[in-house]
């Protein structure tokens, strides 16, 4: 308590929300409702200077800090018991330089504000597909999305950054720190501003298709075979993505796909949409021209604002018939909760992220074509949490067993619990693991950012 009094006295202009404040419960709310950690206080800086003063204060007083932006970490790791949480969401300025193909953005910007401002300037960039996810948290953990084939993963869009370092100084990240930030999240500082790559077009084709799913094995098989034939005939264009999913709708379990044509040639995209729709009858198709912001708004009804979650991801080189069989079995056993979902992202060989000339120096190690199988073991009601958790963990175990020859060493950082990253070498590769350990020792020897993801 004495620390809290000192914080308020020493930094009178900083907004501090403590456990006694009525606002505390609202400020502490994150996406994963199953996490119930109680920080000492949540501070809401208005500037990089206030972030710097908070870090200096925490160091002087031996208090832990953590950083929270969108609060969408799948394990709620932004909330740390008895720590000072730096809620960085007020640092959300977006300045667009369309001619340079870049935007300067604040460290707390969320997907919605970024995509909205870019749309106003007739531009686009890969973003999280949900409006309330923090952009920096997304990009630092890889940044998956439907534009990855065309523009690369989010991580390859982070050009430069200003950070508040472990001494509480505002500095421009040098090349080594940038490499570490791209894939090892906030281990080297609080990112207060970055410059990112953007692209000069505003509208694409995007939306959701729900296929007729009376027999979801046949629905999936027809769509999958159709996509494989299309790829064989026509090398799928990088603008095209169909992200399949199984989920629970009010009328039962369904197989569907999020469709995206990430390019300005809408007529060409429409031709691919028609082909996809010809693979199997559908009961709903919301695909239409959209800015990135409108696409986020179109996704919103399918994702709850928060849920009790214990999700996992498995990275595989390819999806084999055995894995498809596992998906069908998993759909049969998926608990009847609208928040539960099984989905898989693909990143094809054409992605700029797999080509040294177009990817940036980083410790992000999954630099080969792959799929991320996302087991969204989410429950909209607390009483379903145990059941979805059991379902998710059983599916992860089955995939690791049945598809062992396809599994990549690294899973997706955002969806891997910290305690399951038992070897940085396995996760990042031996060279990157050594690099990260040396950098951490040099730039954060006292562990000011010890609650960042992953633990180094
Ligand atoms: C509903 C939902 C949809 C998602 N969609 C996608 C998607 O489409 N693609 C994808 O790749 N991922 C997606 N994710 C995962 C998400 O991108 C990551 O979990 C990301 O880290 C969340 O960032 P956040 O700011 O929202 O979360 P927070 O919980 O606020 O932050 C997570 C961690 O990131 C670090 N951090 C965040 N901002 C900063 C900063 N400015 N400086 C230093 N450290 C910082 C901190 O260590 C913090 O603990 C999704 C997650 C959810 C729950």
TrEMBL record:
Record-linked SUPFAM superfamilies: FAD-binding/transporter-associated domain-like
Domain FAD-binding PCMH-type: 35-201
Keywords: FAD, Flavoprotein, Oxidoreductase
PROSITE patterns recorded: FAD_PCMH (PS51387), OX2_COVAL_FAD (PS00862)
Keyword Oxidoreductase: yes
Sequence similarity: Belongs to the oxygen-dependent FAD-linked oxidoreductase family.
PANTHER family found in the cross-reference section: BINDING OXIDOREDUCTASE, PUTATIVE (AFU_ORTHOLOGUE AFUA_1G17690)-RELATED, FAD-BINDING PCMH-TYPE DOMAIN-CONTAINING PROTEIN
Official protein name in the record: FAD-binding PCMH-type domain-containing protein
Source species taxonomy: Eukaryota, Fungi, Dikarya, Ascomycota, Pezizomycotina
């Amino acid at each position: 308590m004495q620390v809290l009094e000192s914080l308020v006295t020493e930094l009178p202009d900083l907004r501090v929300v403590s456990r006694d404040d009525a606002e505390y419960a609202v400020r502490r709310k994150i996406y994963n409702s199953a996490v119930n950690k109680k920080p000492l206080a949540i501070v809401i800086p208005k500037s990089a200077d206030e972030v710097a003063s908070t870090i200096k204060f925490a160091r002087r007083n031996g208090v832990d800090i953590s950083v929270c932006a969108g609060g969408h970490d799948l394990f709620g790791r932004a909330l740390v018991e008895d720590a000072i949480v730096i809620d960085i969401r007020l640092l959300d300025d977006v300045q667009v330089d369309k001619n340079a193909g870049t935007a300067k953005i604040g460290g707390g910007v969320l997907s919605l504000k970024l995509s909205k401002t870019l749309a106003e300037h007739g531009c686009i960039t890969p973003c999280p597909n949900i409006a309330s996810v923090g952009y920096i948290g997304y990009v630092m953990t890889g940044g998956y999305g439907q534009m990855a084939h065309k523009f690369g993963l989010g991580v390859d869009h982070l050009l430069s950054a200003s950070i508040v370092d472990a001494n509480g100084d505002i500095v421009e990240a040098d090349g080594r720190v940038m490499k570490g930030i791209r894939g090892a999240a906030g281990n080297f500082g609080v990112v207060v501003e970055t410059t990112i790559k953007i692209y000069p077009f505003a509208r694409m084709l995007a939306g959701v298709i729900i296929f007729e799913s009376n027999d979801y094995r046949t629905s999936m098989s027809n769509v999958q075979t159709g996509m494989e034939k299309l790829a064989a005939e026509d090398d799928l264009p990088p603008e095209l993505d169909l992200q399949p999913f199984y989920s629970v709708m009010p009328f039962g379990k369904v197989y569907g796909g999020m469709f995206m044509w990430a390019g300005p040639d809408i007529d060409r995209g429409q031709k691919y949409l028609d082909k996809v729709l010809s693979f199997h009858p559908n009961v709903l198709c919301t695909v239409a021209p959209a800015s990135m912001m409108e696409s986020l708004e179109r996704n919103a009804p399918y994702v709850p604002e928060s849920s009790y979650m214990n999700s996992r991801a498995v990275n595989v080189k390819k999806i084999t018939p055995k894995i498809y069989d596992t998906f069908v079995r998993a759909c049969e056993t998926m608990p009847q909760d609208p928040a539960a979902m099984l989905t898989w992202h693909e990143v094809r060989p054409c992605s700029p992220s797999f080509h040294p000339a177009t990817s940036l120096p980083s410790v992000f190690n999954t630099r080969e074509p792959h799929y991320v199988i996302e087991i969204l073991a989410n429950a909209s009601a607390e009483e379903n949490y145990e059941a979805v958790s059991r379902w998710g963990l059983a599916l992860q175990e089955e995939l690791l067993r049945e598809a062992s020859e396809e599994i990549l060493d690294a899973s997706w950082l955002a969806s891997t619990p910290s305690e399951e990253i038992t070897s940085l070498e396995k996760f990042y590769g031996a060279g990157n693991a050594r690099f990260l350990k040396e950098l951490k020792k040099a730039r954060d020897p006292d562990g000011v950012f010890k609650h960042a993801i992953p633990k180094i």
